[in-house]
Design brief:
Blueprint: H1 30-40, E1 45-49, E2 52-55, H2 56-72, E3 80-84, H3 89-100, E4 104-107, H4 114-124, E5 128-132, H5 133-141, E6 150-154, H6 162-167, H7 173-182, E7 190-192, H8 193-196, E8 216-222, E9 230-235, H9 236-249, E10 258-261, H10 268-280, E11 284-287, H11 293-302, E12 307-310, H12 312-325, E13 334-337, H13 344-354, E14 357-363, E15 370-373, E16 387-388, E17 393-397, E18 410-416, H14 428-434, E19 441-449, E20 455-460, E21 465-467, E22 470-472, H15 474-481, E23 487-496, E24 502-510, H16 519-527, E25 538-541, H17 555-565
Parallel strand pairs: 1-11, 3-4, 3-5, 4-8, 5-6, 6-7, 10-11, 12-13, 13-14, 24-25
Antiparallel strand pairs: 1-2, 8-9, 14-15, 15-16, 17-18, 18-19, 19-20, 21-22, 23-24
Keywords: Ligase
Domain AMP-binding enzyme C-terminal: 477-552
Domain AMP-dependent synthetase/ligase: 36-425
Amino acid sequence: MNDAVARPTPDSPDEATPIPATIDVPDESLPHGLSAAAAAWPDRVAVDFLRSTLTYAELDAAVARAAQALLDLGVEPGDRVAIALPNCTTHVVAFSAVLRIGGVVVEHNPTYTAPQLRHQLADSGARVAIVWEKAARAALGAREGTALETVVAVDVSRDLPTTSRLALRLPVRAARATRAALRDAVPDGALRWERLVRRRGPQLPASHPYPASDAVALLQYTGGTTGTPKGAVLTHRNLVANAVQCEVWTRTVRASETLYGALPFFHAFGLTLCLGYGLRTGATLVVFPRFDPAAMVAAQRRRPGTFLPAVPPMIERFTTAAREAGVDLTSFRFAFSGAMALPASTARAWEEATGGYAIEGYGMTETSPVALGNPVSPERRPGALGLAFPSTQVRVVDAETLQDVPDGARGELLLRGPQVFSGYWNRPEESAEQLLPDGWLRTGDVVVRDEDGFVTLVDRIKEMIVTGGFKVYPSQVEDLLREMPGVADVAVVGTPGGDLGEKVVAAIVLDGSVPTISLAELRAWASERVASYAVPRELVVVTELPRSIIGKVLRRVVRDDLVGRRPE
């Protein structure tokens, strides 16, 4: 038995319901949503972590115990609390507990080393860190020069079903390997989460005040294309607004969705869709510790999903794995894709397998993160970022003058709405560069908007290549080079080019159908398809391209690597 409901068919009346142009943002904090869900649907499964489940009533009680434990540790409203955990039930609980008592969550990648953690901990001023056992040593090693006082280590294996936990003790190779992947010795100086949050321990009184809607809820670090991570300051109002916008845009019927949480919760995309929108709407959140198509196929057999937020490679691999396993995906109403362009072939395969939609959206950490989306209807436009979310305003301007450009012309995308952040933590100058005095956010993305309001991404201003006075948009060149026989993937970047300013360089990954590709062959192919100034002047063949945790190609890293290879 599962909590999924029948997915509306593509011609259901729901899709004819107009999306409102504006929304009312409730004057409440994010934890209000979980409390309301627990009151409305106490027996509905809230979290399913590899078959171990919590109902909404049980989740609410677990959050209350964790919240009281944090109060007992001395966490006060406004205190920053670092979380460095993989996706698991404890991540859901810890996130919600910090917010419930007015703390500020600071999410971190749980695989960070001590030097990587140290910068963000020092910048945020976090006094308490809740971390995976495998990250405890790095967190303790990162304390020097920071305000960090307390490290709490989490045994993720305790979130597993009882049978799975017992199996970890077996003296067999598979059990030892799984145990080693999940657990680590807790170093001296770290507290244990399970000792702080006892099943029969004290709970936060229901009368404890909730944080105000304008209180800071989250510092989400983002490097963008500049390298140095900055903490985007997001309030409860920002996060609630984006959750409501997502609910309205997807025409969600509350307590009906089964949401697959394979995106990392420490990333803005996974955090808002799973821990914001998901819990607020009474969805059943099926949690995966990492993206694993086989595990998702197994979950689909026992608890069919209705909504998959994901990046394109995840959608493609899940669709393929389900087809090869003979598993039906028609329970899914739609997949919401972000972070990179959604290939038409990936969208087509998903829609053929599910009968639902694969829609593309757009956002940034600074917009909590979703700002644009394609309609969840036949009006979707593959390849376009979509239309403005409710209560979100869009401008396309000349990047130098900030004057609006006509529809159909390229320009920088500006956004304004209730989900737009209030600035970067302790960085007033960079905040002023990104946020204009009248509330418009400069995205740094070059787009085109058509007469119907659909926005299409062209490129990033900071990654645009200027060569011989001409502007080259890397993604346009990449799209053409990907069509060249033998090319599996490509990144186009600009490197120092003397009198030219920058030189166009292509880093390609071969697909194995040809032994290699020469610069002459690549230039001949490109010359027939792009302007002469955009044709790569240099070619580097690589085995793989560096990608972010959610799969986006890191052009800055490619560029830095290519520049570093050159002799002085």
